[in-house]
Amino acid sequence: MGGMRVHRQLHGRGALFDTEPAGLAPRLVGLRPHQHRAIAVEHPQELPFVVLTGARGTGKSALLAELRRAYHGHTPVALVDCEAAEFAAPPAGRDTEAWSPVSQALLVIAEQLAQPVTGAGRITFPRLMSGLVAVAAGGWRDADSERIRREVERILLLNESGSWIAGFAGRWAGRVAANVAAAATGTGPLLSSAIEATLESISDSFVHRRRQRAATWWRDYPNASRNARRGLMLLSGHFRAGGTSREHAERHLVRALLADLTDAYAGVLPRMQRLGRPLVLVDNAQSAPGPGLTDPVLRDRSAGIADQVVFITALRGTGRPALRNAVRRTLPEVARRTDWTPDPASPASRALLVSLPPLTADDTLHIVDEHQVPPQLPHAVHRLTGGNPLGITLLTESAAQNGTGSLGELLTSDVRLHEDRDGRPAYVELLDRLVPADRMEELTVLAAAHDHDSATALAAALLPDDFGPADVRALQTRLVQEGLPEVPGRFVGDPFVRTLLLLRLHHRSADHGRWRATHETLIAHYAPPGPDEAHTRYRLHHELALGSTESAVAHLRDTFTALDTRTWLRTLRFVASAPYFHAHDAEGHDFAAHDDRRAAIALGHTDAAQPMPDSADDHAVAVLHLRIRRLLHAVWQLTDPLALPDPKVCDRLRFELEQLSNLRPAGNALLWRASRDWPEDALAGRPLRIPDGNDDDSGDGEGAA
Amino acid sequence: MAGTGFGTRLREGVWEIPLRRYVALLLTLVVLGGLGFVVRTLAHDDRSCAKGVLRAEGSDECVGVSATGYDWGRAPLRPVVRAIDRENRSIKGPYVTVALLEPFTATDADNLGDVLHELQGAYLAQYQANHRSNGTVPAIRLVLANPGATGAHWEHTVEQLAGMTGAKDRLRAVAGVGLSTAENKRAVAALTARGIAVIGTSITADNLANGQHGKDPFPGLARVAPTNTDEARALTSFARVAADKAVLVHDQKADDPDNGDPYSLTLQRSFEKLLKGSPYAPWSFNPPDDRSLEGSTANDFEQITHLVCDTDAGTDTILFAGRHTQLRQFINALGERGCQKRRFTLLTGDEASYLTGDKDLNRDALNHNLTVRYTALAHPDAWLTSPPATGGSAADAQALLDLVREGQGDKVGPIGDVDLEDGQLIIAHDAMRLTYQGIRFAKGSKDIPTLEEVRNEWRLIKGTQQRVDGASGWICLDNHGNPYDKAVPIVELTSRGTARFVRIAWPEGKPPAKECLPPS
């Protein structure tokens, strides 16, 4: 994610970045992006805690990176990625008792916010600094003074004002670090000495009201008896204790950060120097320390402890349970105003969840068009990716590097995302970013599954023994949590991700053995006839995936008169939605071959060579057989996300459906409707409609629905 | 990134940040102010000569009113200007300001000499007022007002003087005025129209006086010198000229509305009355507009000289109505006349007094049967031998002479080189005396009289108590502010360039009675 080549201008995210009229970010920050010009803020008193939601690859990280670029140097900006390694575990030699992802994140955030901006100098964080020193001091029991010095100096730098007066007196942090280290390794009680030295250093450094306020801030810590030193001792103790005590301590550390920021913006001089509000960007806020940063802010704001910090966080999925009551909007809805009013009773309502919609066809065109590409490619890319920003940009990159127009080739060709890294197939790069890495292997297999049962069957047959039905359920839940759509009849709901996974499955082994095994397993799973059409449908679908069309054609031919027309059409549509890879080729070639035999069959070029099945004795049956064969291949080709719809095939599809409608007086209207709708839908890249049907199950063909 | 041009950086790096915006605005203001100041200082045409004095528009002449030790760039004036400045600064207690209106920037030596002498006289009178009058208040502060050498910038100076009548300067009178030019006449009209009393020193022109044809066009104007008419009357009472034995030479432009000369005109009219029935029509010359310039009149006079020689043998008197430069040219021409054997007496007004120090005068002309006699404004010898019983006194004359002597010392002076013979010092002294006496009479029981009180005082300057015992004779003013039967010394220009006192003549034919009350 972080390494993605990001476009200079993010397409389709104007609702966030627009200047005239101002988008969400400028309205909250109070500054035009990339400019040092103030604009009116939308929520002058209390501002929403913005959470961008979406599945992997929806462009959240790119948005946050662009936000940082837009405001860097203009207002204090911090960007942390909660999945970064530095938050996963304490640095070497550091005790977990005195370290937590939240404390680390606060340190990193404050370090970034401290940077001077146009018109104003560094921000100091005396409150947070003393809190972090107190926390760190909890782990110094048997540390040597050199290590203490090293640890504490980084924290103390938060209070370095960087002014020339301070510079005149030498690096403040260096001097104080020596004092603190000396105090901590001295004879007296270690913790209180370190705290004492730190507090003294704040209040002594300058006789300044602002500093005095900061030095006494911790006396408001619960049970501190109006004594800052005691407050810090308690903080340190709570932090060390872990559990909810640590959460309590962390909450106060977050509050200290916000108080320092508020203080930096208070007063006549700062107000005349600083434009806008400080901006804190938290990526991957679903993992620690994300919740540890989010929840205290929401709680404090709900409790009336106001701050003016703009939080914009990115959350994979659709929202954590803690944010259940948050206000939800889509990005286009907040383009002009948020319509956000917090509910006093619910801290979560201080959050504003903004979901990122897929990019439109126009956006796709704008992105892909930046390179010299074949004219039909933008449309094909959009049809395949469904507007997934990551998919679009990576395919564009692949097109730029490989200079080909075929989607299949673009996906399998190597793409280099970094100068210093070898290229890898585009679909691999995409999957790395679009699915959880730890379940890649399982998902590759399960992508072919349709529901829990089929997935379990696949897992039992092809996955290691330790991956049982419970794990299948867990994986399914996880996909939903990560924001992938839940689609009946598809284990992996997102068509683009599913296509990529199936592609990976196809390429898993050189002889496509894994691919074949998977589909054979499912064919076996669906072999016993089900209660209705469904099992047959699935079986034929997977047979088709393996390249065997005969039974599908036969089944469709035989049921054409027997089945309800709508059900028949669904069966046709579902069976034809099977992935089309040339795994079945005698030479073992994959689909990269340019000739798409489906089109040839659909257009009737192979009819003559087609041996008649046994049952097709009389002429009418033979004609129907061939017609249905052509029809199946036409639908198969036209709905293949990796192939561009062929207009000639579309035309043929219309014709075949018209002809069929003549054969079925009962279903005449439906078939005729389909003969009009399907070619149109196919050309537009839409799922094929079943006219007048209860058509919420587009594309899946789940007959049981 | 948005544009990184200068405009964007200015907008985003400075303007958008309030602190920087205000600091930048402040700095911009300071810089602009500084620039403005620098540009103004650099571009400013410093027209100031001294405090209160500046170069007039379109000219390099320093005009205005000086209350400091500024010497107008004229070295001869420097000692007396410094003395006046010292005197002004030593004033303690109530004071009024009197301005001396003179062409301090005069370029020719004649006029500058006059100015110097008047300045010395005025100063001595100021000194007398402040130190020799038993501590009578108010003290007199003397400031110098220059309308320009030709009086061209009188408007500026008059405006400035008018602005000094307030509580700070307390200007109550303007003395001086000097020549009776058209510009000076307008200046006097403007000053008196603003209610400021004016005391003329050597104004002799009739039309720069009140009471002519029963009108008072200059309310508040007082004069020390007799009018030209009175001078002419005194002159004629002295000469007893017969119409058939005299010819008149006059200024052709004397009655010009723009560049006219009231002095010459008055003299001309008076002489014309004497010459009623003369066989010769008057001869005129055409002087330049600035009559202190040489112009081309010398040529006129050469031709007039031929006419003079062509007159009957009985003609022995030439009456000259004109200014001193032209008079000099005429005398020089007469010195070259063809009829050197014939004896002529040239009679003229007080302008001839300028010729006493005039280096361009061909003094040898006076050795060739030519006598130049004229009415002086005053003469130091007038009262020293056998003075009349009334109309003036030797003691008053001697008092000024003593003061002049003191003026050479450090206590009163130094006031520079003194020349009493042209009478300018004496007459200016008398005018200042009239001024301060008038002001002190007018003040009543207060310290400072109002402008109006000063203006209305002149008609009361008469009688044994209130007449001014001037060094040039008694000054008793009639109801129009003109001196009544003022002693007119008749002097003769000598070939040594001095004025020899001949005798005192009286406009009324005899000295005034000791009450010195003008008849109605």
Task: Describe it.
Chain B: The chain crosses the membrane at residues 21-39. Chain B: Keywords: Membrane, Transmembrane, Transmembrane helix. Chain B: It comes from Streptomyces pseudovenezuelae. Chain B: This is Receptor ligand binding region domain-containing protein. The complex is a heterodimer of chains A (705) and B (520). Chain A is mainly α. Chain A has four domains: 1-75 and 275-357, no CATH class; 93-103 and 120-274, no CATH class; 361-434, no CATH class; 549-705, no CATH class. Chain A contains 31 helices and eight strands. Chain A has helices at 14-17, 24-29, 60-71, 101-113, 126-137, 145-156, 164-168, 172-184, 190-205, 209-215, 228-241, 243-264, 268-273, 290-302, 361-368, 377-385, 389-402, 407-412, 426-434, 440-446, 452-462, 469-481, 495-506, 513-525, 533-545, 550-562, 565-575, 597-602, 619-638, 647-663, 668-684, and strands at 49-54, 77-81, 279-283, 310-316, 327-330, 351-355, 414-415, 424-425. A six-stranded parallel sheet of chain A has the order 2-3-4-1-6-5, with helices on both faces. A two-stranded antiparallel ribbon of chain A has the order 7-8. In chain A, helix 4 (101-113) packs parallel to helix 12 (243-264), helix 5 packs antiparallel against helix 12 (243-264) and helix 19 (426-434) crosses helix 23 (495-506). Residues 1-7, 583-593 and 695-705 of chain A have low confidence and may be disordered. Chain B is an alpha/beta fold and 520 residues long. Chain B folds into three domains: 7-43; 53-225 and 389-484, Rossmann fold (3-Layer(aba) Sandwich); 230-375, Rossmann fold. Chain B is built from 14 helices and 17 strands. Chain B has helices spanning 6-15, 18-43, 78-90, 109-131, 154-162, 182-193, 228-239, 262-274, 297-309, 324-335, 394-406, 424-442, 451-455, 463-466, and strands spanning 48-50, 53-55, 62-66, 95-101, 139-146, 171-176, 197-200, 221-223, 246-251, 283-285, 317-321, 344-348, 370-375, 468-470, 473-475, 488-493, 499-505. Chain B is globular and about 105 Å long. The termini of chain B are far apart.
